[in-house]
Write a structure and sequence with these properties.
By secondary structure, the protein is mostly helical. The chain is built from two helices and no strands. The longest helix is centred in the middle third of the chain and has 23 residues.
Length: 68
């Protein structure tokens, strides 16, 4: 049996390849914060608040989710 050399160099011991940029848990928390913020902003806007106030309300409601 012949072995074909791989194009990637071997990983030295003690050095692991880098992990993902963000974990699935982080992505889920950020997605939940986005959805909550959009819902609150939309309902606030439909209540008659100016657009800037609705955006501020949405951002402030999403903020506690991000700091879990």
């Amino acid at each position: 049996m012949t072995s074909v050399p791989s194009s990637e160099p071997p990983i030295p011991p003690g050095n692991s390849p880098p992990g993902p940029f963000i974990t699935q848990h982080t992505a889920l928390i950020l997605l939940a914060a986005l959805v909550i913020g959009l819902i609150v902003a939309g309902l606030t806007f439909l209540n008659g608040t100016p657009t800037a106030g609705a955006v501020l309300a949405g951002a402030l409601s999403a903020e506690p989710c991000v700091h879990l």
